[in-house]
Specification:
Blueprint: H1 2-6, H2 35-46, H3 52-55, H4 58-71, H5 75-79, E1 86-87, E2 92-96, E3 103-107, H6 110-119, H7 131-134, H8 144-154, E4 161-164, E5 167-171, H9 177-188, H10 193-200, H11 205-209, H12 219-224
Antiparallel strand pairs: 1-2, 2-3, 4-5
Helix pairs in contact: 2-4, 4-6, 4-9
Length: about 230
């Protein structure tokens, strides 16, 4: 609509007077994961299982969890990462956000860098870091989001269901909560808001405030302030 107005196709933006919904569109404040909870999750994933649906992708789930927690990247962006996006020297992750089309270069936390180095077994840059994940849809009954919820239960982590009329409706802690956890961990470590926005690719302070639940140095130093697992 704004583009049409600028081009003179319409005289005014018909939705300008409409109040925007809350940040996540559900009216439910997102939860966050503590470093201890993320570690519990990684340990539960690393134990392995006899069930084939979990066994095949356990290593990739570990990579996905670590990547999301230590970079704040969204689910779709995480799964589409190739080795071309990973720069082991100087230790950064460079990618284009699918939602905003913004180019980001995020310094790799030492624990994530070490994990990725343990996986690197190809010199083909076009190969996905998580080949199995790249083939699975994010949504749907057998999608990654639902798989995430199953693994939450497997690790005995609370999804923090919000009740409406006594019936659980929405979860405060979905995969996207890892993005909130990243920004909150940075905030708790004293990283300045403008640096947090640069690392997450947020366009406005208003959006970013919805991600930092607890209220200029170099970016690598900022990421290094995050507590390890």
């Amino acid at each position: 609509m704004n583009s049409a107005r600028r081009q003179g196709i319409i005289p005014t933006h018909p939705a300008e007077a409409v109040d925007l919904p809350s940040v996540d569109g559900s009216g439910v404040e997102r939860g966050v994961f503590t470093p201890a909870e993320v570690k519990m999750w990684v340990v539960a994933t690393s134990k392995g299982t006899k069930r084939e649906e979990w066994k095949i992708a356990d290593q990739e789930w570990k990579t996905l969890i670590l990547q999301a927690y230590f970079t704040g990247a969204r689910l779709g962006d995480c799964c589409r990462m190739t080795w071309a996006n990973v720069n082991q020297t100087p230790g950064t992750l460079t990618f284009t956000q699918s939602k905003t089309h913004k180019n980001l270069e995020v310094p790799l936390h030492p624990e994530l860098l070490s994990h990725l180095e343990s996986l690197a077994s190809t010199d083909k840059p076009e190969v996905y870091v998580m080949p199995q994940m790249a083939r699975v849809k994010p949504s749907g009954r057998h999608g990654l989001s639902e798989g995430f919820n199953r693994r939450m239960r497997r690790a005995d982590l609370d999804t923090q269901k919000v009740e409406s009329a006594g019936v659980p409706q929405l979860s405060r802690r979905t995969f996207h909560a890892l993005r909130h956890s990243f920004t909150s961990a940075l905030a708790n470590a004293g990283v300045a808001p403008e640096l947090r926005m640069k690392l997450t690719g947020h366009k406005s302070a208003a959006v970013h405030r919805g991600y930092s639940h607890h209220e200029m140095k170099t970016l690598p130093e900022a990421v290094a302030k995050m507590p390890g697992l």
